[in-house]
Amino acid sequence: MTGTGNKGVHENQALNERARIVLQSIIENYIEFSEPVGSRTLSKSIEFKLSPATIRNIMSDLAESGFLIQTHTSAGRVPTDKAYRFYVNSLSEPTTVPDQIKQKFSPVSNGRGSQVEHILAETVHLLADLTKFACVVSTPKAEVSRLQRIELIKISEDRILVILVTKAGVVRDKIIFVKESHSQEFLNSVTAFLNEEFKNHSMQEIRDGIHQSIVSDRHRYHDLLAHAVRLGKKAFDLNQPGEMFIEGQMNLLLDSHFHEQSSVRSLIDAFDQKTALLKILDESMKHKGVHIFIGIENDYKQLQRCSLITASYRNKKNVLGSIGVVGPTSMNYKHIISTVDYTAKLLSKTISEQSYD
Amino acid sequence: MTGTGNKGVHENQALNERARIVLQSIIENYIEFSEPVGSRTLSKSIEFKLSPATIRNIMSDLAESGFLIQTHTSAGRVPTDKAYRFYVNSLSEPTTVPDQIKQKFSPVSNGRGSQVEHILAETVHLLADLTKFACVVSTPKAEVSRLQRIELIKISEDRILVILVTKAGVVRDKIIFVKESHSQEFLNSVTAFLNEEFKNHSMQEIRDGIHQSIVSDRHRYHDLLAHAVRLGKKAFDLNQPGEMFIEGQMNLLLDSHFHEQSSVRSLIDAFDQKTALLKILDESMKHKGVHIFIGIENDYKQLQRCSLITASYRNKKNVLGSIGVVGPTSMNYKHIISTVDYTAKLLSKTISEQSYD
DNA sequence: TATTAGCACTCGTTAATGAATAGTGCTAAT
DNA sequence: ATTAGCACTATTCATTAACGAGTGCTAATA
Asked: Which long-range contacts link A335-340 to residues 24+ away (Cβ below 8 Å)?
């Protein structure tokens, strides 16, 4: 006894076997029915045959330890974020998804020769359909991918259209402004030079190395050089904010857990501005496998009534971006985690086949 | 008297002055407060000083003519789609939008050198913010725009990446499959040929004329010819389904007019599948100026509890796509119509400046 | 003849009431 | 250590009654 007054359950201490089972039972029941669960109902459904009174004692302890809360005196108990975290940690690896779900993906993964953006859009659309929650996917970061080809196209005296094709199969375009006018022929020379020099290098490498690389080749390029440096610098300096596709936002507003005015507004704001979601997806790119943010575990107030399940996707050589599902903290974690895991892996596979190396 | 039993108001007949004012008053009141309006409240707010009893008679007539309905016996009257149509028709040209709204657009319209897609995304985002409804914009149809440049990039033995740049500033890419492998050098020749031959022609023209044009030049191109025809056909045959950006869908679900379960579901479906919205935007491209679909006036059941305000946008030479706002039939038409009108014109101006001719 | 006052009537909203229900916490018995 | 029993609390649900907003009709009025 540490003097906190708890009988069998302490803060920051492993729960005993029975408490674990009770807690898990409560969580699963709440996930299924979205209603506070009481000792009576629990004593029926639990495998361990315990009387309501005993369960009440356990529940009381769990409440004291912060795993459960009551909405009011005579209501059942509802799991807290801490409880969901316990529950998720206790889950084993993602279960395999049923064949009928796998079949839904087959048109996406078989669509050879599609643009990456198209694959992403289809995937997130399907994911939203399967989960009935809001789903997001970030487009591949150009930075991490390697160069397949660059094109410079003159579109006016002071504007050049830059088109970058990455090995991952992503086409990015931007317009750069120049002070002096260049002929298309001249641009073709620069293009040829840049392609020869930088094909298969990552954008990051190119940006870091563009100066010295060109300098070392000085003998081969004469007046081309100065311009190539300048154009190349501009062309490869694409710190675009990163894009994402969102689907199924409206599903969230239908969910009973978001029927309160206040939480709805902040949710809408979050999906409106997108920055919070993008940051979370970016963060998730650093980890392997499925990443889970439960309620307050993510840093963005607007989303702290939600749980986010994310997973990164990649081609053969690089992590490119990530996908995510946003739902209520009482989501069916088993189902969602498995689905996200499967989707991310399949997406990785599909995109790897599309990649140009 | 035609024997229908109506006193002063007939189906398919112009309303008399007084009935018009009463109807307009009811509509504007309902637009403002979203609640059935009764004879009492109306007799206070109306400029014509009439007693509630008189107004009741007029309202009764209007109800008989299909302009008003009652939700139940002792409730006030609510305008029908027919009433909104009358109201909208009676509006004069779009009013000018306030300066403070114009200022919000200035960062968008001043962002020179942005990709067209980016401009569209910003615009629809802002429109959603201004209207607090769901807003859509269709991306420029490649078909109607003229060719600025085409690039063919070899990415594997049997795949070629086609990049089309249109005069409108849109970059489109797709992958085509070929049976025989071509060297990049060979593709460069084909590219040069296609660019020389078809620059400034519309995709439609190119597709129609590609065969004869090449045949007539037979003397200049030898074995290139057969391949160029084949590749060109594939490259320019882009019947992509057309894309769109959507913003502010969630706003709709907050609106009190969509709180019934049934209508919510069909709304979500409509935004999920997008086809209905795309068709409506396509349709709107054929008309000049603002186009208004009130309730049942559009052909898609899922959207028949909404009104849609659309307007096409264009560059100097062609209509490219259109924008639209989706809201309840009781939206503030004056405000929305003006805003859509202004937005479309500004978008046209901005994109014209971006265009490459 | 057009307008209005007056009145009976309908229906929805609201508040109050009470019974039923689902839950808890505590205590004493097992 | 477990459980039965009991007092207690809060929500939900159905019932009721009062109220209000609104209509339609009729008769009086300008």
From this structure: A335/A131, A336/A131, A336/A133, A336/A309, A337/A88, A337/A91, A337/A94, A337/A290, A337/A292, A337/A309, A338/A94, A338/A95, A338/A96, A338/A97, A339/A97, A339/A101, A339/A127, A339/A130, A339/A131, A340/A127, A340/A290, A340/A309, A340/A310, A340/A311
Of A158 and B252, the one with more pLDDT = B252
State the nucleotide closest to A57 in CA–C1' terms: C25
The answer to whether the CB of A1 falls within 8 A of the CB of A34 is: no
**A114–B251 CB contact, under 8 Å:** no
pLDDT tens-digit readout, A170-190: 888 888 888 888 888 888 888
**CATH fold group of domain B99-140+242-354:** Beta-Lactamase (3.30.450)
Q: Does B96 have pLDDT greater than 90?
A: no
pLDDT at A247: 97
- B257 CA to C3 C1' in angstroms comes to 37
Give contacts of B161 with chain A, Cβ < 8 Å.
Answer: 165, 171
- CA-to-C1' distance for A57 and D12, Å? 26
From chain B, pick out residues whose CB is under 8 angstroms from the CB of A174.
113, 115
Q: Which of residues 217-236 of B touch strand C (CB under 7 A)?
A: none
H or E element, residue A155: strand A147-156
Q: Rounded to 5 degrees, what angle do the CA atoms A51, A56, A57 make?
A: 105
Which residues on chain A are in Cβ contact (under 8 Å) with B264?
A: 254
Cβ–Cβ gap B159/A113 under 8 Å: yes
Whole-Å CA distances, B237 to B143, B204, B230, B321: 10, 9, 11, 19
Contact across the interface for A175 and B115, Cβ inside 8 Å: yes
A69 touches strand C (CB under 7 A): no
Q: How far is the alpha carbon of A31 from chain B, nearest alpha carbon, in Å?
A: 22
Angle between helices B223-236 and B184-198 (to 10 degrees): 70
Q: Protein B73 CA to nucleic acid C10 C1', in Å?
A: 6
User: What nucleotides of chain C have any atom within 7 angstroms of a protein Cβ?
Assistant: 3-6, 9-12, 22-27
- pLDDT for B12 equals 43
Identify the architecture of domain B17-90 in CATH. Orthogonal Bundle (1.10)
Candidate CATH numbers 2.40.50.1000, 3.30.390.60, 1.20.1250.20, 3.30.420.140; the one for domain A143-236: 3.30.390.60
When pLDDT is averaged across residues A180-202 and rounded to a whole number, the result is 87
Domain-by-domain residue ranges, chain B?
17-90, 99-140+242-354, 143-236
- The pLDDT of B343-354, averaged and rounded, is 92
Kindly determine whether the C-beta of residue B74 is less than 7 Å away from any atom of nucleic acid strand C: yes
> Mean of the pLDDT values across residues A92-114?
81
Report how far apart the first and last C-alpha atoms of chain A are (Å, whole number): 62
> For A226-230, which contacts have Cβ atoms below 8 Å and span 24 or more sequence positions?
A227/A182, A227/A186, A227/A190, A228/A190, A228/A193, A228/A194, A230/A178
Please answer yes or no on whether B249 and A249 come within 8 Å at the CB atom.
yes
Candidates B185, B253, B357: best to mutate against A (most CBs of A within 10 A) is B253
The average pLDDT across B169-189 equals: 87
Please tell me what DSSP assigns to residue A121. H
Q: Find where tokens 């490259």 sit.
A: B235
